[in-house]
Amino acid sequence: MGADTETAAAPSAGPLKLPIPHPTTDSVPPERPALTDDQTKKYEWLLEQARGWTTVPSKDPSTAGPLTDEDRLWLTRECLLRYLRATKWHEKEAAKRLKDTLTWRREYGVDALTADHISPENETGKQVLLGYDKQGRVCHYLNPGRQNTDVSPRQVQHLVYMVERVIDIMPAGQETLALLINFKTSKSRSNTAPGISTGREVLHILQTHYPERLGRALIINVPWVVWGFFKLITPFIDPLTREKLKFNEDMNQYVPSEQLWTEFLGKLEFDYDHDVYWPALTKLAAERRAARVTRWEAGGKQIGELEDYLFGKLAEGIQGAAAVAAPVAAAVETPAAPGAAPAPEVIEAADTTAATSVEDLKVADLKVNDETPAAKTEEAAVAA
């Protein structure tokens, strides 16, 4: 953006229309607890099992086949640990569930879901990834009042797709997301409660195939019909997950006010413009994932790779990839000095135009004024 950045950040600038690439400098994930000797032994057993897997079974012959690079990349150290925690450290059960999820991801077509396919579901902004909570979790907003489509498999695919994008843009050191739901009604939708069958399907997918991913769920404007819905699905919610649900609380307790959307009683003015936001989110997520793939390849394509290495926190992976990954190390985010803004993630790309990407911008720089040249600057950033 260059000189135009100051114009976009001026007090007269309009609402934010792009995703936010970084948490605030004081939003830091907690340190992961060290494993006990017993937990280490169970992890090592599970890792040995996973490294011995060569195929992904499936009832559908078209999806059964050899383990792919995508499968191996998914099988990180932290992924294996999430399944161990979810099964209360029953290593054989964790192995079974990991295999089941590999099969489900293949049969469901998780990696085949595209932005173009999902785009019609999000034209009204009923799901938005915007900002981070005080522990660096991506804030995943759900706005049922903005529902714009009829019940279909693509509605559930929409949620799966967005959760995958949450994982793409997570900061290093954080494994969970913050779910923020506003059941506020709209002129076109007075009943914002999802159907029971859809709710059960979504819960099954999240609990079975995304274990240990929900860090916190903040829910406001809960009408009586939605309370009834929650009572009906409570038996299907894991007790530990229920403890993470917070109803009608002040979300500013959990999310920095400057990164909390005004619709959720924060101070961040955000206007969902699908033509601007959707390609920007797609680009940001693709860049982050491409950087992780590059690091994973530089580290030797290891099953059990460290997510802190893949996400840029560590310069070396489990095989000591520093020497091999010298070009990648230059692109890794380094810890910022106290009070400093996070360093932008640098990603090599074929297109080396001068336009600034979403990655290079601070929150203030992302605000746009539709009646000034800053709007054109935003369009250039999205098109980059």
Automatic annotation (TrEMBL):
Q: Residues annotated as region Disordered? A: 1-36
Q: Which residues form the CRAL-TRIO domain?
A: 117-272
Q: Which residues form a coiled coil?
A: none
Q: What SMART domains does this protein's entry cite?
A: CRAL_TRIO_N, SEC14
Q: What is this protein called?
A: Phosphatidylinositol transfer protein (PITP)
Species, as recorded: Sporothrix eucalyptigena
The encoding gene:
PDR16
